[in-house]
Amino acid sequence: MQDNRYRILVIRLSSLGDIILTTPVLDALKENYGNSEISLLTKQKYQGLFESDPRISSVIYFEPEDKDKGVFGLFRLIKSLNQEKFDLIVDLHSNLRSFFIRLLVKAERKVHHYKKLIPRFLMVRFKRWGVNPVSTIDNYLKSLGEIGIKAWSRIPRLYSKNENKIWAENFFIENGLGKKEILIGIAPGARWETKRWGLDKFSSVAKNLSQDLPVKILLVGDKDDLKPIEGIENYVGKERTIQAVDLPLDRLIALVKRCGLFISNDSGLMHLASSLGVPTIGIFGPTSPGLGFSPSGLKDKVFWAGVDCSPCSLHGEKECVKESRYCMDNIKPEKIIEEAKRVLSANKVIFLDRDGTITEEKDFVSKIEEIKFIPGSKEALKTLQGFGYKLVIVSNQSGIARGIMTGEQVEEVNDFILKELQNEGIKIEGIYYCPHHPDENCDCRKPRTGLIKRALQDHHLKLKGAWMIGDKLSDVLLGKNIKGKSILVLTGYGQGVKQRIESNLEIYDWQKPDYIAKDLLEAASFIKSEALTESTEPVTNSHKKL
Questions:
Q1: HSE-CB for 216 with a 13 A CA cutoff
Q2: Residue 544: inside a domain, yes or no?
Q3: pLDDT at 543 exceeding the cut of 60
Q4: What is the rounded CA–CA span in Å between residue 68 and residue 42?
């Protein structure tokens, strides 16, 4: 029987952060090539990143410093790759070695990303000469635009095996982490010494947070970081710290995902934490966020002093020639502590679709008379509010762009819904809607995250642990996009989406909701039971998922 799968080779050999930033490309490829098989070419040391990734069919390892060293090793690899008969090659490394691989491995289509070397050179050489920031993720995705691919996600994501989650839970039990204790990850290391914030500063942050809050500090790094990790541990106290040194990446992923906050130098671990949906504070010194390597989470925060001599190199490898490391010394522990406490104090939130979830589905609602609340939806909102969640409505309203209704009409309908719910004692923090046509490729149409960004600007909300509830696949995918959990309700268009899921029609396992509920009331009941279970049971206790 002929194999009709579309075979794709993605090339990114190193390093940790760069490889993590390629993962939105995997989402885009899977979304646009339904019957595809993706192989990733990388180094063995990054094996743990993709062991349980549902988007990857196989990982091919290339070791140019070891068994594949030299020209013969490269051509041996090329010969092996040609046997796979790839249809598409996506080169996200774009160096000399990957150029020859791309050139000599046969494929019908080939694309590669442009490193924007000139803008980056200008930024390093001329500092503040108004060079526009360069986003590595956007560069990667732009390369797919050459073959007509549009991406709905630009947020990196990683996956973890359940066995690693169980291992992590046992690890934390053995290290005395209480169920209700906050875990803050700190990664004091970096490849180059110049990129490392001072040990005294990290120690000060760790001690302050562990004294003022019910917090334990997870100290993360490889064997080269053991000295600063032990220094922080000795300063803070072993009873308030947990070491996670030189662990396999798959296990490290499971540990870091438990964190409520992660504080790191500009390093691969910063991107790892961000990709897991952990609010991340990135500390930049000799490098600049404008070079394209900022953490990409919606709640991530970058600290960069912006002194005249920074950035002094692309990756921070250049020795400092100043009498003091001003780029690092000007970043004060007090500012990091203040931001950390602000992040940890954010309110938990549930995002909800409007039509088909709270109110009955009717295409392009433009009149108050057309609004009918789905039975049980008000009770459900009361339940969720009573359990401490802030409630935010996010809705696609393309009828405005189509000329079917006006923005004023949508605002009038939204005001009516807010007042009706307020009369029932239900507070909605805000209703955010996208007025654009689907073809406009805007940032705010679900499942893209523009509406969530607006909500985060207006309200102090916590994305880690957030829920998204709706009746459409775009709602489910938005939940995935913000690293939250998603519930599909069978009201509105939900039944049709459920049928697509059950028939596996163009929907992958990693795109499916965490739960399917009859309606919003059942969804609220499920969220409440999940929250109660998490507060009393080990995380190894699993619930029925889809």
A1: 23
A2: no
A3: no
A4: 12
Give the tens place of pLDDT for each residue, 382-392: 999 999 999 99
96, burial (CB in 10 Å: exposed 0-12, middle 13-18, buried 19+): exposed
| Domain of residue 371, CATH code | 3.40.50.1000
Candidates 266, 355, 475, 514; catalytic one: 355
Distances (CA, A) of 20 to 8, 79, 154, 157, 534: 18, 27, 12, 8, 29
DSSP string, 112-133: E----HHHHHHHHHHSSS-PPP
Question: From its phi and psi, is residue 504 left (phi > 0), alpha (psi between -120 and 50) or beta?
Answer: left
Q: Helix crossing, 473-481 with 494-502: angle to 10°?
A: 70
Burial classification of residue 545, based on how many CB atoms lie within 10 Å of its CB (0-12 exposed, 13-18 middle, 19 or more buried): exposed
Find the CATH number of the domain harbouring 181.
3.40.50.2000
Task: Please identify, among 309, 344, 379, the residue that sits at the C-terminal boundary of a domain.
Answer: 344
Q: How confident is the model at residue 511 (pLDDT cuts 50, 70, 90)?
A: confident
CA-only gyration radius of the chain, Å: 24
User: Is 234 among the domain residues?
Assistant: yes
Segment 201-224 shows an average pLDDT of 96
Specify whether 355 is catalytic. yes
3-state SS, residue 248? coil
326 and 450, same domain (yes or no): no
Residue 353 known to be catalytic: yes
Helix (H/G/I), strand (E/B), else coil: 287: coil
Does 228 sit behind a cis peptide bond, omega within 30 degrees of 0 on the bond before it?
no
Set 353, 471, 514, 519: catalytic member = 353
Please name which of 345, 354, 360, 358 lies closest in space to residue 524, comparing C-alpha atoms. Answer: 358
pTM of the model: 0.93
Long-range CB pairs of 342-347 (<8 Å, 24+ gap) are 342/460, 343/261, 343/279, 343/281, 343/299, 343/301, 343/462, 344/182, 344/213, 344/260, 344/261, 345/460, 346/299, 346/460, 346/461, 346/462, 347/388, 347/389, 347/390, 347/459, 347/460, 347/461, 347/462
SS3 state of residue 351: strand
If asked whether residues 312 and 355 sit together in one domain, one would say no
Please tell me the total count of domains within the chain: 3
Give the separation between CA 485 and CA 507, rounded to whole angstroms: 17
Per-residue pLDDT of 123-139, as tens digits, reads 887 765 455 666 899 99
Residue bearing tokens 């979830």:
357
CA neighbor of 514 nearest in space, from 496, 489, 538, 488: 488
Candidates 230, 276, 285; CA nearest to 254 is: 276
208 located within any domain:
yes
What's the pLDDT at 189?
96
Whole-number percent of the chain with pLDDT over 70:
95
